[in-house]
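Sharing a chain and its predicted structure for anyone who wants a worked example. Both blocks are below, sequence first, tokens second.
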Amino acid sequence: MAAALHRGLDFHDDFSGPGRRSCPSADGPGAIAEGVNACGSGTRRATILCVVSLLVALALALLSLHVPPAVAAPAAPAIRVRLLDGGETFDSRLLLGKKVLIVRFQASWCKTCATQAAGVQRVYERYQDRDVEFLALHVEDTERDARRFLRAHRTTYPTALDPDVRVANRFGFKHAPYTIVINKRGEIVARLEATANEARLAAAIDSALKPPRGKVLPKAP
């Protein structure tokens, strides 16, 4: 009878198999209690692992749904210079909420500037009636050389001097030509290096003219 009871409580013999976790064999009441506790402990561990796995999966799902906030475009430094033609003062702050501003750093000694001059003039003529303002700043140039450059290339957009690159350095200038596109909110939205052609400049202006959804333009002073 005791042997039969022993065989009836031998979980290893009756229930073990591939993929199964066996409980210890029961040899008397103490062994039975030990076997039950071992099985219960294994069940608890499996439950905890299951819960942890679900929490990890939920956390990963929430992270995948999180969209980082858009980084705001940097504000453009204010520009206040005297124009070559007419001697009027150009103040970029007066354009806030009104126009997109294109700032072109160029020079009479710059061969690439001379090559791109006709294209820049065409872009200026194309957008001058579309809330876009141009300003060329001649860096490390004399007034005489700058005027000669403007006459040679028949440019008609506003131009001023920046002989000591004081303004240019505030925009991260490294070499001419260098073009900055500033939207109506006074934010720098494009920086075009020397290799930027007429098509890229036009595309940058078109992009700047599109107001972002949900934003209000600042009031002009």
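Comments welcome. The chain has two domains: 2-65, 80-209.
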